[in-house]
């Protein structure tokens, strides 16, 4: 024993210049390769959310059939806002809850592979985040086409592109929010409870049930950090922020325009689209970052 | 420590799981780590492999005489965990390629890595299952036994110098266990260091090992040394103590040894095998 506990004469300690055999890019490529196949072979995940999105968009589209162009009175406009709000929350929550088992299962494998020194946490987390991009893009594209044409919004390229852009980042942040909840909690059950705790709050402060000007001052800060609020802000403003046609409001001033109405009622400024876009991208990056950060720092294994 | 235990007079705030374990594992020598459930076999392995996520580790782990550095050690060691955890939606071959690409040195060419993957698949008889989806345990995909072989293969493709295996033959039928043991034996014969915990080994499996580290409940070592031909060294060691019954004819020495050193046997004889081991010539 004593003999074995000292290095043999002339021996040098083993030394590797790098901690991992592949560099970060190599680790990312390998992780992405595996995640890519995993996603492709998980129809129970991808098909379910795709079919759900299809059904939701057809349902919303037929319930709110061709009302996008009706903006001569307040009731019609409120209905459109409700339709948009409902669709985004439906699909968003679905994205959030379907992604959880996927991430939770892969995380158990991640613990073993990380302990084996195969890769560091960040390339792994980024590969999983990257895999979502094309799938959510497909989802957003057909969702937007269906909703846009069935609800009958104005066919103007800039408005349609805004619609796609806002929906894309909204669905992405919902998905990454779901992934983040898994990375913050020990298992999928706790993650889904944690996630659903915020569904109600996101709902309440989305700016539809209580328009922002009506939220008490001491709660209005939550409106500004509620991602759903920014989605609705963006969707409504991009559709109606430039509409100068009059809108009928009982007891309202004559000659009230749609643009003025959404500003008075909801606080939506038409020249605020730049910051809205920035914040939506910001939420997406933020949730993805927290996911990666927690995957790296938290370890819920107990050995 | 739980409140109820403190009320019963337990003073310590930490529970000691391993007590004064000293041993060495050498290259080209296949060591079995045995003991009753709760003896601390997995704990010891986790400590050695650096897989513990909680608790406190005291003492000294050396690799070739140098203090162990976990980053380096992770590169040269493999650990087959007791639970076979694999990504469910990739194939057997993809799992192995993934492991090989991320763990073999950068200097190794892509062709060599793939060739190595194919060789390992042959070694553990996974060639027929190369394109099978791994699936979820108990639901889809590979059976328990195939999964075990995949776990071992995933570690072998990393070409580690030191391999820990936590119950590699548990849950396998005799033939599958023999395949696994043959793969393990071949690995050892290439000059690698392999340590296996093992439960209820058959005589054949038990005697495939060269050395034995036997632990008893509470994390004490009660035997550490060579098995000897037909396990005669272990048997002679335990039979040397007065009162220990002789091993019956054709009896499995692994079973006999666990029975002879059990808590019940200790109580009957009024001895502590951990103390006896410390005083023995073997330990000196």
Brief rundown of the structure:
The complex is a heterodimer of chains A (303) and B (284). Chain A is mainly α and 303 residues long. Chain A contains 10 helices and no strands.
H and E order of chain B: HEHEEHEHHHEHEHEEHHHH
Instruction: Return the average pLDDT of chain B rounded to an integer.
Output: 89
Radius of gyration of chain A using CA atoms only: 24 Å
How much is the average pLDDT of chain A?
91
Q: How would you sum up the global shape of chain B? A: globular
Class derived from helix and strand content of chain A: mainly alpha
Uncertain regions spanning at least 5 consecutive residues of chain B: none
Shape designation of chain A: elongated
What is the fold named in CATH at topology level of the domain at 15-84 and 161-279 in chain B?
Rossmann fold
Task: Report the span from N to C terminus of chain A.
Answer: 28 Å
Quick tags:
heterodimer, A: 303 residues, 10 helices, B: 284 residues, alpha/beta, Rossmann fold, six-stranded mixed β-sheet, two-stranded antiparallel sheet, 13% strand
Write the layout of secondary structure elements.
The complex is a heterodimer of chains A (303) and B (284).
Chain A lengths: L23 H17 L2 H21 L10 H42 L5 H31 L5 H28 L3 H17 L15 H6 L1 H14 L17 H9 L6 H25 L6
Helix pairs in contact in A: 1-4, 2-3, 2-4, 3-4, 3-5, 3-6, 3-8, 4-5, 4-10, 5-6, 5-8, 5-10, 8-10
Chain B lengths: L2 H5 L22 E6 L5 H9 L12 E2 L2 E2 L2 H7 E4 L11 H12 L6 H14 L20 H13 L5 E5 L7 H16 L3 E5 L5 H4 L4 E6 L3 E7 L5 H8 L13 H8 L2 H7 L3 H7 L5
Parallel strand pairs in B: 1-6, 1-7, 4-5, 5-6
Antiparallel strand pairs in B: 2-3, 7-8
Helix pairs in contact in B: 4-5, 4-6
């Amino acid at each position: 024993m004593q003999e074995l506990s000292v290095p043999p004469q002339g021996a040098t300690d083993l030394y590797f210049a790098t901690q991992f055999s592949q560099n970060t890019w190599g680790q990312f490529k390998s992780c992405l390769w595996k995640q890519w196949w995993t996603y492709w072979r998980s129809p129970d995940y991808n098909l379910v959310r795709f079919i759900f999105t299809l059904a939701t968009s057809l349902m919303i589209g037929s319930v709110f059939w061709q009302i996008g162009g009706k903006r001569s009175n307040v009731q019609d406009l409120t209905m459109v806002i409700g339709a948009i709000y409902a669709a985004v929350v439906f699909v968003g929550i679905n994205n959030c809850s379907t992604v959880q088992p996927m991430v939770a299962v892969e995380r158990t494998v991640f613990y073993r592979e990380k302990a084996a020194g195969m890769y560091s946490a960040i390339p792994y987390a980024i590969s999983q985040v990257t895999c979502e991009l094309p799938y959510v893009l497909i989802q957003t594209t057909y969702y937007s086409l269906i909703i846009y044409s069935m609800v009958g919004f104005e066919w103007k390229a800039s408005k349609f592109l805004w619609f796609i852009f806002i929906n894309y980042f909204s669905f992405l942040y919902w998905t990454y929010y779901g992934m983040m909840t898994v990375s913050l909690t020990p298992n999928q059950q706790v993650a889904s409870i944690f996630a659903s705790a915020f569904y109600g709050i996101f709902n309440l402060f989305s700016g539809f049930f209580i328009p922002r000007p009506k939220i008490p001052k001491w709660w209005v800060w939550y409106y500004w950090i509620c991602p759903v609020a920014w989605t609705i802000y963006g969707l409504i403003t991009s559709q109606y922020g430039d509409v100068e046609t009059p809108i009928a409001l009982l007891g309202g001033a004559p000659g009230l325009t749609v643009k003025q109405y959404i500003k008075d009622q909801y606080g939506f400024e038409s020249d605020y689209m730049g910051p809205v876009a920035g914040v939506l991208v910001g939420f997406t990056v933020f949730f993805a970052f927290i996911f990666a950060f927690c995957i790296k720092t938290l370890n819920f294994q107990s050995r | 420590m739980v409140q109820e235990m403190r009320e019963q007079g337990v003073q310590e705030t930490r529970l000691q799981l391993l007590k004064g374990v000293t041993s060495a594992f050498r290259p080209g020598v296949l060591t079995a780590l045995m003991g009753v459930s709760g003896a601390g076999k997995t704990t010891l392995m986790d400590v050695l492999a650096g897989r513990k996520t909680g608790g406190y580790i005291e003492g000294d782990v050396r690799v070739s005489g140098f203090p162990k550095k976990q980053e380096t050690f992770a590169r040269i060691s493999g650990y087959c965990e007791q639970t076979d955890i694999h990504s469910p939606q990739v194939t057997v071959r993809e799992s192995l390629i993934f492991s090989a690409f991320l763990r073999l040195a950068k200097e190794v060419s892509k062709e060599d890595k793939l060739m190595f993957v194919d060789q390992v698949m042959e070694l553990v008889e996974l060639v027929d299952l190369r394109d099978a989806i791994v699936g979820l345990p108990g639901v889809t995909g590979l059976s328990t036994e195939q999964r075990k072989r995949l776990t071992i293969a995933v570690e072998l493709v990393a070409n580690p110098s030191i391999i820990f295996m936590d119950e590699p033959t548990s849950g396998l039928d005799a033939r599958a266990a023999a395949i696994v043991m043959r793969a393990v034996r071949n690995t050892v014969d290439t000059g690698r260091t392999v340590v296996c915990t093992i439960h209820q080994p058959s005589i054949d499996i038990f005697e495939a090992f060269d050395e034995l580290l036997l632990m008893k409940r509470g994390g004490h070592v009660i035997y550490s040394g060579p098995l000897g031909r037909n396990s005669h060294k272990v048997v002679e060691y335990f039979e040397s103590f007065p009162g220990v019954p002789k091993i019956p004819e054709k009896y499995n020495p692994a079973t006999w040894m666990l029975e002879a050193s059990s808590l019940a046997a200790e109580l009957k004889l009024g001895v502590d095998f951990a103390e006896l081991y410390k005083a023995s010539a073997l330990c000196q």
